[in-house]
């Protein structure tokens, strides 16, 4: 047996111990911040987090609770997140990718009756994006219909989206690219006209607005990521939101093993009918807590993660302001290079929450994207690709016989793709070969943006001098 720990301060009550721990945590966080400020910044990252005293104190407090799964901090975070975005329901999960999986899986629930998505139904997607916006479509046996994207906004080409809708189309599942929203008016109009579900993948767009409404709140379901690269973080984590009570119940079921019960962890008999139901072919009165209505998962987070997220959420507005300031600084600093670079743009009704700053090298430029990216990385400027490039070229699709459709083609492909197939998505192909992004996150400053601009100008100047 382990012997009891020797008390260092035997007369100190737990409240005083906790108070002193919080004071020391604040002092420790201050020391870390001072050390970081004293180090010269040799690399400007493409993304990153900003955490400090409040996050550390919340982590310690959650640890002291010794409640290992989602608890009071999770409840507080879900409530605060829903209130911040102005929606009825917010549900945490272990990643933005899981949020997408939950959102799409919910639409396959038999509880939706004639609105249930079924294998073989078609879903509008884009090829220029992150895989986990597409993966749930395939994982659930539906057919992704890939639509091209526009250079500049890097979002779906709305005209081509219109043409891609067929009688088999049942949903639109698109991401707001790097915090820049697509035309929600047209998307929702098309959804209403054709009876389609809309999932807004807002993992990279927390805080973006369309005519004043937050990204993720306009469609039927919105998803968010709290990975360290995103607008706020809880380490690993995600959120799904909806205003639909039935969808919320279904999402909760898929997240929590597929069970029919909606009781929170540690609570029983919320429905007051725990032993009175007759569901499936189970005996009458079988414990509702162990009744399963979906083929679900366990995608919950810990209260420790929620504690970090709660502190981060309180800083969201300041993070968004820093991101916008950084993006505007780059737009101003790089304006004189528009003859060789395409800078990001957004629709008039959109207020972006910049996740990153997309740059495209023009086809007529005397240098390539690859040359520019290698120069930037060698000079301390972090870069990233527009995720999968053309996802149709990724091994996940080239090495399988997954059924898919491209644009408004009538034929459904299930064999090896060819160059002529890729050529049907010219904007996506351009982005794969010409587009990258640099960082504007809250861990960077306007001075960092000016340094980024200076390195870009140096690169362009070197090429022009070499040519002449």
Helix and strand topology:
Elements: H1 14-38, H2 53-65, H3 72-85, E1 89-93, H4 96-106, E2 122-126, H5 131-139, E3 143-147, H6 158-164, E4 169-175, H7 184-194, E5 197-201, E6 209-210, E7 213-214, E8 221-225, E9 238-242, H8 245-255, H9 303-313, H10 316-333, E10 341-342, E11 350-351, E12 357-361, H11 369-378, E13 383-385, H12 395-398, E14 405-406, H13 419-422, H14 426-434, E15 435-438, H15 446-467
Parallel strand pairs: 2-3, 2-4, 3-14, 4-5, 5-8
Antiparallel strand pairs: 1-9, 6-7, 6-11, 8-9, 10-12, 12-15, 13-15
Helix pairs in contact: 1-2, 2-9, 3-9, 4-5, 4-8, 10-15
Low-confidence stretches: none
CATH superfamily of the largest domain: Type I PLP-dependent aspartate aminotransferase-like (Major domain)
Strand content: 5-15%
What is the straight-line distance between the termini? 81 Å
Give the SSE string.
Answer: HHHEHEHEHEHEEEEEHHHEEEHEHEHHEH
Overall form: flat
Largest sheet entry: 8 strands, mixed
What value does the Rg take, in angstroms?
A: 24 Å
Number of strands: 15
Percent of residues in helical segments? 25-40%
In order across it, which strands form the biggest sheet? Answer: 1-9-8-5-4-2-3-14
Give the tally of structural domains. Answer: 3
**Average pLDDT reading:** 94
> CATH class of the largest domain, please?
Alpha Beta
Tell me the CATH topology of the largest domain. Answer: Aspartate Aminotransferase, domain 2
Number of helices: 15
């Amino acid at each position: 047996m382990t012997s009891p720990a020797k008390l260092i301060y035997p007369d100190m009550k737990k409240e005083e111990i906790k108070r002193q721990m919080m004071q020391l945590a604040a002092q420790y966080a201050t020391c870390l911040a001072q050390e970081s400020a004293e180090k010269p910044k040799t690399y400007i990252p493409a993304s990153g987090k900003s955490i400090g005293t409040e996050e550390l104190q919340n982590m310690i407090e959650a640890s002291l609770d010794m409640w290992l799964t989602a608890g009071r901090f999770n409840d507080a975070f879900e409530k605060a997140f829903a209130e911040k975005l102005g929606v009825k329901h917010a549900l945490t999960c272990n990643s933005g990718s899981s949020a997408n999986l939950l959102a799409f899986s919910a639409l396959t629930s038999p509880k939706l009756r004639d609105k249930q998505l079924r294998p073989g139904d078609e879903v509008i997607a884009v090829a220029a994006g992150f895989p986990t916006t597409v993966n749930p479509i395939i994982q659930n046996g539906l057919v992704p219909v890939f639509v091209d994207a526009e250079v500049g906004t890097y979002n779906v080409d709305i005209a081509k989206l219109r043409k891609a809708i067929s009688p088999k189309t049942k949903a639109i599942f698109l991401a707001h690219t790097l915090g820049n929203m697509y035309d929600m008016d047209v998307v929702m109009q098309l959804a209403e006209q054709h009876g389609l579900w809309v999932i807004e993948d807002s993992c990279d767009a927390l805080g973006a607005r369309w005519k004043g409404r937050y990204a993720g709140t306009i469609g039927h379901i919105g998803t968010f990521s709290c990975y360290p690269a995103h607008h706020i973080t809880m380490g690993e984590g995600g959120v799904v939101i909806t205003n639909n009570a039935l969808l919320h119940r279904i999402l909760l079921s898929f997240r929590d093993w597929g069970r029919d019960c909606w009781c929170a962890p540690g609570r029983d008999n919320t429905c007051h009918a725990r032993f009175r139901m007759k569901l499936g072919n189970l005996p009458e009165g079988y414990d509702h807590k162990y009744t399963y209505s979906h083929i679900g998962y366990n995608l919950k987070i810990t209260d420790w993660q929620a504690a970090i997220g709660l502190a981060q959420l309180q800083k969201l507005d300041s993070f968004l302001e820093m991101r916008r300031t950084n993006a505007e600084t780059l737009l101003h600093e790089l304006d004189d290079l528009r003859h060789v670079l395409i800078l990001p743009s957004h629709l008039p009704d959109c207020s972006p929450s910049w996740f990153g700053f997309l740059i495209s090298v023009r086809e007529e430029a005397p240098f390539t994207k690859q040359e520019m990216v290698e120069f930037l990385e060698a000079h301390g400027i972090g870069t990233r690709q527009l995720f999968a490039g053309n996802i149709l070229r990724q091994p996940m699709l080239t090495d399988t016989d997954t059924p898919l459709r491209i644009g408004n083609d009538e034929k459904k492909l299930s064999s090896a793709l060819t160059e002529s197939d890729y050529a049907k998505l010219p904007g996506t192909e351009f982005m794969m070969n010409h587009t990258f992004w640099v960082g504007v996150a809250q861990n960077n400053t306007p001075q960092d943006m000016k340094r980024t601009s200076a390195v870009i100008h140096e690169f362009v100047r070197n090429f022009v001098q070499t040519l002449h």
